[in-house]
Amino acid sequence: MDKKQKKRLYWQIPFLLLLIAGTVWVIKNQQDTPYHTDEGFIFGTNYKITYQYADDLKPEIEKQLMLVDSALSMFNEQSTISHVNRNEVYQPNDMFTEVVTKALAISKETGGAFDITVAPLVNAWGFGFKNGEMPTEAAVDSIRKFIGYKKIEMNDGIVRKSDPRIMLDCSAIAKGYGCDVIAAYLEKKGITNYMVMIGGEVVTKGINPTRLPWRIGVTKPDDDTLGIKQETQTVLNVTDKAMATSGNYRNFYYKGGKKYAHTIDPATGHPVQHSLLSATVLAKDCATADAYATSFMVMGIDRAKQLLEQHNELMAYFIFTDEKGELAVWFSPTLQDKIEE
After folding, report:
1. Among 24-28, 70-74, 159-163, 255-259, whose mean pLDDT is lowest?
2. What pLDDT does residue 252 have?
3. In Å, what is the CA distance from 83 to each residue of 95, 123, 167, 172?
4. Which H or E run contains 183?
């Protein structure tokens, strides 16, 4: 070894030792940092957020959730969406604008299967705000005249309706968007290990408190309106992904011996009647996963499969009833490696 090589080595050894020491310090510091779990109620459902950080961030997290509520909640009379539904002048809101813009894009992509103007039909069939008599065909046809995403436009944050009776309802995308907002907040805090869950919508990153990838169960469809049984159909590894599930096995009622589910097809004005019971979608962001999960429940399994062929960025897990009336599953080929049970 010549003098130059020895000199270079003398400089490299301290650098390597420093690098090793730094790596050990980072790993130990990360292992010593506690995980926090914050729980509460928002958007008409429960939330659970687990993250690794030195401090408990619940007050800040709830502040972020309330910002989403003030933009998108139909139950908040002062929210942006409530002002829109009352045809009042309002100040454009970035969150509201972002969600409605995304919703309109997905509505177009799904041929109207996803539609944030469908709320009056949902209410007419006994879901949402009202619980009354089953609507007549004439009543459904009358409501359908002011239903349709093409009847609204968004310009500079202002919604323009072709009919003042149009009502916007972002409930099929708001929970997913709320997950995205909290995930973005945690990212800004430098947090790399977390799970954000609002209702059935989830965003994860990194590892869980047991130092393993995040695993989320997909509930087996069952006519259990109280959600007591909660039997797991399968378990998915969803680390660094967003996941949303939509199904007709919780929110439904029977009338005249017939089952009416809460998913309304905007094209017909009636509750969907097909074999698809549950649609779970994995995507880069939860708002997208949330909206497509709802869309697939409207479309049914065959149309949903066709749309998935055009969207390689989406993965789906469907639970449906086969020709014998038994539970069956179908999932995207790219989802195979994420199925753990």
Report:
1. 24-28
2. 45
3. 14, 19, 10, 19
4. helix 171-188
